């Protein structure tokens, strides 16, 4: 990276509570501390810096996103005094619109879904010579920006980690972790990805390519990607509270290809919403931080030792949890999560089903 990046190095802290619970050194990479509250600021600001360098100060950054990618683009454009327009679908919260406007972004609301907002963004880019479409996750420049996270962890950790945990939606974060691990000689370090049931397009895509007879959920269908020779799971709708951030219709085929071929492997885990909600509340109690469900999904093994033991070698001494962040969280959300989890716990006793690479793991309620 020739230019000084817009992001600042984020802390890597050791969690004494989680470490004691898991019996190893549990490190937290606090990506929630970026200006836009999520890791996306790394890759998207890197892309926007390159776009401004290529197209000049009159570049117009255009993005379709009602979530963390949109805010990251707005923050980066504002920092560079560049124009930014964010297209978001109908039904967006007024608080989201206000957050974007505080970063001097022009906000265009319209369309029944993200795909409509994306099409409107593409039309604007076609009509303006200086307009550039900012990708949410499907772009190598974005992955290169995210890869800086691993390069920081490499300097912050004394020993190589035995595993890295992250959430996955479209795959941008994972793409960055894979590239970063290659750059620092950690290609053999296992990566564990986590999603919620109902947004788990990456999990089902990996299963389809490892086991072609894999059955997809009713809300998904298989589509072919000729460029990479892959089959992708395409979700037509979502059934998870985390869909606002994890709800990609299909994952990046480029990232899927890297994950399938990676030396250290990528383990794929999908969990029920209730476990992510419980982890969000536990993390708030432990570390006095609110994180959205897309982020707390990563932290579920940190609070469920029986699950953690199934995902990493028993000899694991150092693990890293990427606290990816996200602005879609509030005190009222946490109260809602408490009600949902308490209601579930008062129901039938037993366990929650977690799926890991085709295996069902029972996690005690």
Structure commentary:
This protein has 365 residues and is of the alpha/beta class. The chain has two domains: 12-37 and 140-364, Rossmann fold; 40-133, Rossmann fold, CATH 3.40.50. Helices cover 44% and strands 20% of the residues. It has 14 helices and 14 strands. It has helices at 16-22, 40-55, 68-79, 94-102, 114-127, 140-156, 172-184, 201-210, 243-246, 253-261, 273-287, 293-303, 305-311, 331-346, and strands at residues 12-14, 25-30, 60-64, 83-88, 106-109, 131-133, 163-167, 191-196, 220-225, 230-235, 266-271, 318-323, 351-356, 359-364. The strands form three sheets. Strands 1-2-12-7-8-11-13-14 form an eight-stranded mixed beta sheet, sandwiched between helices. β9 (220-225) and β10 form a beta hairpin. α2 crosses α3, α6 (140-156) crosses α7 (172-184) and α12 crosses α13 (305-311). The longest helix has 17 residues, at 140-156. The chain is globular. The chain starts with 11 loop residues before the first strand and ends with a strand. 50% of the residues are buried. The model has no long low-confidence stretch (mean pLDDT 94).
């Amino acid at each position: 990276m020739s230019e000084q990046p817009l992001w600042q190095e984020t802390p890597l802290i050791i969690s004494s509570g989680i470490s004691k619970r898991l019996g190893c050194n549990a490190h937290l990479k606090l990506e929630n501390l970026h200006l836009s509250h999520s890791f996306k600021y790394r890759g998207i600001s890197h892309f926007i810096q390159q776009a401004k360098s290529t197209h000049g100060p009159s570049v117009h950054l255009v993005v379709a996103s009602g979530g963390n990618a949109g805010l990251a683009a707005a923050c980066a454009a504002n920092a560079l005094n560049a124009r930014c327009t964010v297209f978001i679908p109908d039904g967006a919260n007024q608080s989201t619109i206000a957050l974007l406007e505080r970063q001097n972004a022009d906000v265009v609301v319209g369309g029944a879904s993200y795909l409509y907002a994306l099409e409107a963004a593409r039309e604007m880019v076609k009509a303006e010579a200086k307009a550039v479409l900012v990708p949410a996750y499907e772009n190598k420049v974005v992955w290169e920006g995210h890869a800086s996270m691993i390069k920081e962890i490499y300097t912050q950790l004394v020993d190589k980690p035995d595993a890295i945990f992250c959430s996955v939606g479209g795959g941008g974060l994972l793409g960055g972790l894979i590239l970063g691990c290659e750059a620092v000689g950690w290609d053999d370090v296992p990566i564990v990805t986590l999603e919620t049931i109902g947004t788990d397009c990456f999990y089902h895509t990996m299963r389809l390519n490892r086991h072609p007879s894999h059955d997809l959920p009713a809300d998904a269908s298989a589509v072919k990607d000729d460029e990479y020779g892959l089959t992708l799971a395409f979700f037509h709708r979502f059934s998870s509270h985390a869909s606002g951030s994890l709800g990609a219709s299909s994952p990046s085929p480029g990232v899927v290809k890297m994950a399938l071929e990676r030396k250290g492997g990528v383990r794929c885990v999908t969990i029920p919403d209730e476990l992510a909600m419980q982890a969000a509340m536990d993390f708030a109690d432990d570390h006095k931080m609110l994180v959205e469900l897309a982020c707390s999904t990563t932290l579920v093994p940190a609070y469920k030792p029986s699950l953690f033991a199934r995902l990493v070698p028993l000899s694991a001494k150092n693990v890293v949890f990427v606290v990816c962040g996200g602005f879609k969280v509030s005190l009222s959300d946490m109260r809602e999560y408490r009600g949902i989890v308490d209601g579930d716990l008062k129901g039938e006793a037993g366990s929650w089903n977690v799926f890991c690479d085709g295996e069902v793991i029972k996690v005690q309620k």
